[in-house]
Amino acid sequence: MMARRRGNTLFGRLVNLAAALVVGGAVLFVSARGFGPLPPFGPAFVPGTGVWSVAADARLPTTEVLHLPELQRPATVVFEHLGTAHIRAATDHDLWLVNGYLHARFRLFQLDLLRRLGEGLLSQAVGSAALDSDKFELKLGLRRTAEAEWRQLPANDPARLALLAYSKGVNDGIQELESHHNLPVLFKLLGYQPKSWTPIDTLVVQGDETQDLDFTDTPLDYALLVRHLGYQRTMRWFPVLPVNGQHPYDPGPYQGGPPAPIPSQASVGTPASALVSVLATELAALPPGAVHRYGASNNWAVDGTKTASGKPLLAGDPHLHQTLPAIWYELSGDSPGFHFSGVGIPGTPGIIIGRNRHISWSLTDTQNQSTLYYLERTDQRHRYYWRGAWHPMRRLHYAIPVKGSSATHYEVDLTVHGPLTTSARVPGHGLAIWWAGALPSSDIDALLGVMRASTFDQFRRALGVWHAPTQNFIYADDGGNIGIIAPGYYPIVPRGIPWLPLPGLGPSDVAGTIPYGDVPQAYDPPNHILFSANQRPVTGAYPYYIGTSLDFFDTGYRAARIQRVLSGGSHLSVASMEALQNDVHDFLAQEIVPKLLAAVPVRGLTPLQRRARAQLARWDGGMTARSPAASIWWYFWQRYLRDTFDPWWSAAHVPSSRFHSVRVGSGLAPLDEDLEDWTLHDQGNAVFSPPEGPHRTAGEVMRRAFVEAVGQLADRLGPDPTTWRWGTLHKRTIESFAQVSSLQYGPRASGGDPWTVNAADGGMTSSAGPSWRFIMDWGNGRAQGVYPGGQSENPLSPWYRNQINAWWKGLYYPLLSAAAAAHRRGAIVWTMHR
Amino acid sequence: MHYSDTVRPSNETALPAIALGGGTIAIWIANLVGLWWVTPLFGFLIGLLPLPGRRSYAVAALAGAVGWGLGLLWLNFQESVGSAASVVAGIMGFGSHGSVVIVLTLLLAAILGLVGAWIGRSLRRVVETRFVDPYGQL
Description:
Strand content of chain B: under 5%
Distance between the termini of chain B: 9 Å
Largest interface: A-B, 43 and 47 residues
Number of helices of chain B: 5
Structural class of chain B: mainly alpha
Oligomer: heterodimer
Shape of chain A: globular
Helix content of chain A: 25-40%
Radius of gyration of chain A: 28 Å
Helix content of chain B: over 70%
Strand content of chain A: 15-25%
Structural class of chain A: alpha+beta
Order of helices and strands of chain B: HHHHH
């Protein structure tokens, strides 16, 4: 009674009002603006326009008339039942405009995430968890490069016009989605709206892909290895030229001068070593894709002498992170200047892989060295010592907006070599990053030229302005020709050892690049086949240094398998190409298992080990999901690597627990190549005997590794080797692009390994591999393709992951023209007017 | 009987019922175009009304929840609200339990109505005390 009476006094009611205002105000504030990681609940969950629109937005398009204010002439888009879009436009401007509109309508969140990633603006959307990534991207300078590229484009340059039209299309799409309250669900949950798209955003997205393919930390790994193993041993185990042949597609003869001599001795001093640790730690914390890790992608072409039709066949399957939505968007385009079909990257106009009326092409990563590190002398006045004098560093100031907190201020110091990493532990020194991807590259111009080309000469000329990322562009045309060329920057360093941090004093500066006429290339070769699978593209006689065996080039096992199949084949057909793209035979296993069986005779084995050996004895090297032998092989090889090299790593105190990139395993490709070579040709190599340990041969180490592998598998999968299926151990996941686990596909039992043509990269739960499979048959002029995903990023859309099953089964869909697609059953047509 | 809570007997049920019905429809229509803040605004207005007892709270919370619930029901005639809720639940870390998202949405609506009513009712009671009952005796 007393309490009630107190509550009824003016004071009590004022207190009540104050409490209502404070608590109610807080609730309303959080509802309107969100707080920390909490979304703005009000607009996010309101039934009419909030997250619930994800269901309405998932509806497939219908045949209708749309109005795009910037269109010059009427245009149409035909959608196949799978979601593939076919644009028919009366002007080139309209082609790019509609291209941008489609990307916005079906992939807007992906577009925004891609540009935020490259521009260092992820924290603004997702909070401080992304701050390390943002700082690194600002340091690397994708946005700075994009701005420089944009400034360099002349007013009437075709790429400039395409970028402007494309941006208008994206913005038309954004406006429409906003006005219908249909922005993708993640915008609503994160509580922000996308800002307008600009041509610079497209160039940043281009930079993202360059970084994923071209930015490496290999010199840091070399520095760690040299520091602990010594230079001689490091270079013996991680040589410049691989110990296996690798089947280069450009066997010479080569032009150009003789290679510059490279000193055989080097050491990594204390300042460099400490800075390497700092930078390597920084890089290890970055999200997937920030540093190039996996050597993958295949492409090949055979001319008419080896095909059933008498005309060339071309196939390509770029291996990238497999995500939902995919990194690819499939479309065809018809306008006065262009007639193409294939796949492009959302955020950029046109296609990257595909065909036009006369030529077809596909890409793999060349994987030459594109990143160099320079040890700079610095002082406390923000200067660095270069060419005999002190120079001021250029200091850039950034304010990184962070969701739920105040902006973080960040400074980037630039030397003549690139952005600088410093550490308080190493005063007076810094490590600068020189990266080819930071230099302007006219990739859009190059791709526009490729899309228009009808001969290899035009194709080759168009790619002359492509500088990064260095790619192997394979080619086949309707005239019966095949070719390949790897355009890009190949930095030439006149002095010093480029695979280690270089002194930043001047003499080791990049002096230029390999002339375009000398970059790896081939045309209509006498053996009638061309292929690239990230192997070294040239022989040891090539007069320029282009990279080493340690994550610049791949092991060459995929290349060897492709070479074996194509060179042995005749009357090759589309079915042969399909079979090879989906091939899971492990070339290394086929080489090594006979040696293993010889080293592990039946006598002396336990019954379990005998049964395991019997699995291997009747195995053909196929890494299928059902194969028990595949499990035994893989476990054996990993044990064999570790039993051989771990004692050396331990004795040298290689910091492999801190830096996984130098841990013994198949991530260090040269160790696979070394062990392959010694097992096949040098079983008494001293490396098999541990330092200060008993003498061992390859056979003894193989026996030990086999016994250990069988024991591990029995512990994990039980005592019956027939049940040790590879798919029980090895999975594949198509991850969510936004890193939301509920939106991913899998993990699902999967065949393959990093060395199979149908590659599975990224460990026992693979997340990288063939991101698109493409085959062009010039015998009938038809192309086909498939990718593990779908055209829409909306998880509820029937086009979200509708191609995954076909991809998994090795099936393909035809790449139709717009006219052919319009006559297909279920075709949907948008007619577009101003 | 307190003055501020005094209404004629015929209004004791009629006014809350009218407010509930009108508010629900207003909230539902406003939500169709994204005006989520109409819910706390309605609660505020209800709080200003001299409804008996604490009925303003019940009316505001109920109108909010029912208004938003009707919105979801309306959507469900066109699309699957359950599927949308499952996607959102997955993104928010609730697994595939879409029902959690639906319950939280209705709870949010009720809370928005409640805080609006609380502010409105508190304001009304202060105003009444200051201008109608300057001695704070009511």
